[in-house]
Amino acid sequence: MPKLGMEPIRKEALVKATIVEIGRAGSLDVTVSQIARRAGMSPALAHHYFGGKEAIFLAAMRHVLSLYGAEVRGALAVAEGPQARLDAIFRVSFSATNFRREVVSAWLNFYVLAQSQADARRLLSVYQRRLRSNLLACLRPLHGHGAEALADSLGALIDGLYLREVLKEGPPDAETALRMLRDHLTDKGKDPNP
Amino acid sequence: MPKLGMEPIRKEALVKATIVEIGRAGSLDVTVSQIARRAGMSPALAHHYFGGKEAIFLAAMRHVLSLYGAEVRGALAVAEGPQARLDAIFRVSFSATNFRREVVSAWLNFYVLAQSQADARRLLSVYQRRLRSNLLACLRPLHGHGAEALADSLGALIDGLYLREVLKEGPPDAETALRMLRDHLTDKGKDPNP
DNA sequence: TTTTTTGTTGATTGACGAGTCAATAAACTT
DNA sequence: AAGTTTATTGACTCGTCAATCAACAAAAAA
């Protein structure tokens, strides 16, 4: 049976299964066995490829983050002007791929993980810095000073909207979330000192 | 040794120890033994008084929530006018008692808990509803329509600021957080249709 | 004073889960 | 054909932890 070149396939299956299982459990209280079973293999194989549970979680985190990052880059590539680019970032943050219960739950739990695992913290920091710098690039032309504070509050608002999603029932409401982000900016002094 | 009337004392000690331990671990991966040891008793006694780990967490959650609730009520009692009352809510949310690493970590983990435990979810929902209605009472006189959306985004922003605190290092910066909350409101159309 | 209630713990149980290992088998190399 | 690498798992080890229990101690009630 053993076909060669299984490693990437198995790893991907494990990473996806990890996200699903974290979503199901709503926490990191997920056994390697559960993950492996959902990914269609034995627990031993999961250990074989990743070496340990910690590494599996880390890989899952990287996956979510890089997926999000890629989507942002894609959206920015076709958006022209700061206003449009800003909105592109917003839309990606609440796109169907990212704003799903599973993924939101994963994010939340990654924040928890970041409190005790340095690698996880580093990854999250990278994401936060990237988001901040993306936002700043758009905000500076629109609101000269105050762009920094605005970027920070927008970041916090996005995270808060994610956080609150986990308590809601029913399908995620991206429209409402987007409206709040946009309203956060409207009526702010436009370009006070360019 | 056995003095009578220990129950409330023991319970309080356990609840406080729980919050400290959650803060230390940064997660709910905390054993009853750890909690009991920090509270100065045997694990068996913790089980005796609470019946199980789940109940200990729930009690800790109630403690944090009721402390916050009491502080809000106290601040509202001496604040006059919607503007002042609004700011009172903000200040309590980032007061020295509530905006501490331990407590912030506890909040975060309660959100996680809420995903898998119905009781925890109920408690958090109560808090959210209360916050929302407190905010609404202040916002309606100031911004007629749009008060609802504003209350929701303020709630999300508060949660987001808490969430982001767990990644920061150094002491919590309440001033900056407060500035963001206040800025979120400034320049919004005041009282468009009263 | 006996009995009951309340407080307290050491020792134990039973379950579960991460990680290891030896063994098997297919595919590639030489 | 013999040897090496890659894939795969069942069985096992070792540790941990929630929960239980029997036993002991002191206060209160009878």
From TrEMBL, chains A, B:
Work out whether the entry's keyword set contains Isomerase: no
* Keyword Phosphoprotein carried by entry: no
Q: Which GO terms describe its biological process?
A: glycine betaine biosynthetic process from choline; negative regulation of DNA-templated transcription
Query: InterPro entries this protein is in?
Result: BetI_C, Homeodomain-like_sf, HTH-type_TetR-like_transc_reg, HTH_TetR, Tet_transcr_reg_TetR-rel_C_sf, Tscrpt_rep_BetI
DNA-binding region(s) in UniProt: 31-50
Q: Where are its TM segments located?
A: none
For this UniProt record, the keywords arranged alphabetically read as follows: DNA-binding, Repressor, Transcription, Transcription regulation
The residues covered by the HTH tetR-type domain are: 8-68
| Pathway(s) the chain acts in | Amine and polyamine biosynthesis; betaine biosynthesis via choline pathway [regulation]
GO MF terms, alphabetically ordered? DNA-binding transcription factor activity; transcription cis-regulatory region binding
Q: Which domain of life is it from?
A: Bacteria
List, alphabetically, the Pfam families matched: TetR_C_6 (PF13977), TetR_N (PF00440)
- Report the NCBIfam families cross-referenced here: betaine_BetI (TIGR03384), PRK00767.1 (NF001978)
Q: What is this protein called?
A: HTH-type transcriptional regulator BetI
Which gene name does the record give?
betI
